[in-house]
Amino acid sequence: MRERHGLRVLVTAAGTRRGCLVDPAGLTPAEVLARAGHGPALPQAPLPARDLLAASDADVLVELTVMGDLSAATNAVPYRPEATAHVLEAFRLGMDVVTANKGPIAWSWPEVSQAAAAAGRRIRCESAVVDGLPVFSLLEFALPDCRVLGFEAVFNATTNFIVDAMGAGRSFEDALAQTQADGYAEADPRNDVDGWDAASKAAALANVAMDAGITPADVERLSLRDVPLERITRAREAGRRLRLVTSVWREPAGPTGPAGEAGPAGPVRACLRAEELDVDHPLAAVGGESLAVLLHTDLMGDILVCERHALLPQTAYGVYADLMHLCRTG
């Protein structure tokens, strides 16, 4: 960043569950890695997030915590990501935020966006939905005044890989074990397999791109456990591809007013379903660890954005790109 853009970024604090590192004078990322020994155990005892943020005296919070198990979440008993508290505290302290955690965007977007506006701060979340694929940046910078009407997506690399592996004759358990060994499935795979990850990504993208005001609990979900192997192989034998597709759309607007003015916009709906796609469907070829979003817009028609082999470096790049944007426009 310094050589290419004349920007010097220093880390004033870093924290994990196993430790933290605070140096208000600032350390380079290389110095942080050297002190951490390239592992999660930082040299100082862990601090509560609020205390760590206060001690950092930073300009930007980079929030990289992960979501917990969502299996019991409903709108009546909503999930409250710990990341939301971190983001709100950062705004209170005058920081901008970059997050790869979809929780604050999916579960708490009205609160988070209003808090950012009230504090005059910015939040960027490119890596929260498609592992760094520039979907939010595309909408913000390349498609001015272009409205997203809905979208379809293959959002979860774990289940996408498992579906293809099962179609090739492997068992669900064997394919899942490989995704965990390869590092793109969590040790606890329930959020992936039971559709919560895809539902969270759908809610996050819909909230930002469509002002949807939904949470993952509003998304009709399907667990991969409920998709029989016979259906996967039958689709393949028929020349189609089975994909777990997340679909998001807005219901038609309400009736026009007495003067002919447009009625209120309809609510946004979302679902995750197993769909047997013809081979010429844009999402049919999105196999293995790949991810894709098919945006339906009013002015540019359908736009497909795809990422092959979605892994950690792409997520990290999305965070880097967001940080670069904040630094260059701050």
Give a short overview.
By secondary structure, the protein is of the alpha+beta class.
Key phrases:
single chain, 330 residues, alpha+beta, Rossmann fold, Dihydrodipicolinate Reductase, domain 2, five-stranded antiparallel sheet, three-stranded parallel sheet, 10 strands, globular
Notes on the structure:
The chain has 330 residues and is α+β, with helices and mostly antiparallel strands. The chain folds into two domains: 2-135 and 314-329, Rossmann fold, CATH 3.40.50; 140-308, Dihydrodipicolinate Reductase, domain 2 (2-Layer Sandwich), CATH 3.30.360. 37% of the residues lie in helices and 20% in strands. The protein has helices spanning 2-5, 29-36, 49-56, 82-92, 103-107, 109-119, 135-142, 157-167, 172-182, 190-193, 196-210, 229-237, 312-329; strands at 11-16, 19-27, 60-63, 96-99, 123-124, 148-154, 240-250, 268-278, 291-297, 302-307. The strands form three sheets. It has a five-stranded antiparallel beta sheet with strand order 8-7-6-9-10. Strands 3-4-5 form a three-stranded parallel beta sheet, with helices on both faces. A hairpin with a 4-residue loop joins β9 and β10 (302-307). α4 (82-92) runs parallel beside α6, α8 packs across α9 and α8 packs across α12. It is globular, with a radius of gyration of 21 Å. The mean pLDDT is 91.
